[in-house]
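ok so for the tutorial part 2 we go from a plain amino acid sequence to predicted structure tokens. step 1 is just haveing the sequence, like this:
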Amino acid sequence: MFAVRSGRKMLVTTGAFLAAGALITGCSSGSSDSSAQPSNASSEGNAAAGEEVVIGFSGPAADHGWLGAINSAAIAQGDSLEDVDLRVAEGTNDANLQISQVEQFINDKVDAIVLLPTDGAALTAVATKAMEAGIPVINVDREFSSPAAARTTILGDNYGMGRSAGEYICERLGDKPDAIVAEIPGVDSLPLTQERSKGFEEALKTCGLDVDNRVPADFTVAGGEAAAAQLLSAAPKIDAIWNHDDDQGHGVLAAIDSAGRDEFFMVGGAGSKNAMELIKGGDSVLEATVLYPSTQAADGVRLARLIAQNKAMSDLVEVEAPKRIVLNAPVVTSENVDQYLPTAFTS
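step 2 — the prediction. this is what the tokens look like for a chain of 347 residues:
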């Protein structure tokens, strides 16, 4: 069920919020000097290898570019950490199988678990069981239904994605009150899609625009192509399109090419390498994408290590790791694309 991986390399950076530096954990016992160096600090800070910890990781089936990148980045991060023994469960979209994987981690008495649940509600009970057994759980991307199920939660900002996309379109079209804005979301029934659409709509309202045409897809290339073809057929004129997902964006762009349309610009979502290269090239209707970091599970591995070793985040004064972290959703354009390409995922 598991592949055992031990990292034996120097620490590398995957998330700016865990930058290496002097570890700050509070004053040593008996000290009245608030500036005193903590007794367990070292000049190398969190980058220095500590006691080896065993971390279990369970993620989704890699049936989507972003999800594949989530898994590979987590594994690479475990391999890079000298003091981490990362045990990787087979990726799955079966909640029952994932429950059994977590139960195995509990039986193995791992030091921490990083879990991107296929269904947050379905995995809540077993995650709570791990927490009650004294094993900290780091919940990634899809939230559990109870805060008691996780020591720390790391999320992308779905509402913020929509907000960022809408604000970018407002900057480009805010002086055109009659501009036609279209939206191609992912799976409409998912809370993450609903949050993205909500943020988008609310941002557009600030400049007097709204969503004139909206056709949902399903996060797949075929679904993106079908949705875009339907949208383009229904809307003879468009000024801007926001496509929620760069994987389905392959299909969206194919439909645009087939229709011979180029009177609009498009904003993507998630931040694939393919999308960023198109943005950098400047020869596509795609001129921006909104980041939804594929480093979330890798950040989870880094954070699980610190929690299991009773360390804090070195750039914070707080003596414990935070309970909740929401990563930023910046807009990637030709002006800043080189900054984000190194962490872009292949779609």
